[in-house]
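Internal tracking record. Fields below are filled automatically when a chain is submitted to the structure queue. Please do not edit lines marked as system-generated. If the sequence contains nonstandard residues, flag them in the REMARKS field before resubmitting.
Queue: standard
Priority: normal
Entity type: single polypeptide chain
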Amino acid sequence: MGKIKVSETPMEGLYIIEPTVFGDSRGYFVETYNQRDMEEAGFPMDFVQDSQSMSVKGVLRGLHFQKQHPQAKIVRVIRGSVYDVAVDLRSGSASFGQWFGIELSAENHKQLLIGEGFAHGFLVLSDIATVCYKAGDFYHPGDEGGIAWNDPSLGIQWPGVKGAYAGTASAEGYTLADGSPLILSEKDQKWPLLQDAFRF
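SYSTEM-GENERATED OUTPUT FOLLOWS
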């Protein structure tokens, strides 16, 4: 029924997907995933797991990946908005160590297709955000990896985040533009720099 628009990013393996939205005075209807449309667009991928997270404003999750079981992902937002980021960890890639960011929101309906070999994270821009993921492999406990969200070598420009790198991934000393704190899990404040992280 609905077709998709696929836009390239500066990195091979990373694409923006925009589904067709049918709207009228009642609201809208959208196919958020259609395997035939994806295959016709050149993405014959199998997704085995759907996940969903809810986060409050100022939460930063990431940058995450799985080492031995890398996951391709399609990320979208069904409530609020986030700044979504992917970092290329593929050793032989021309864009290794580079990042790409995009705002995903319930209003713009954009999705980010992230191939295997990327780290992923996001910052919540709205009061509350609900993020949905399709994953190409299952979650494997003990296979988790991560990179410091504030690694100076990456130079990710997280919108509205103020503070200076002090040698670790700790959120201490960082705030949002309105002065509210940046919120990270204990685990996400301990990830190493890219130079010390796993490479695919």
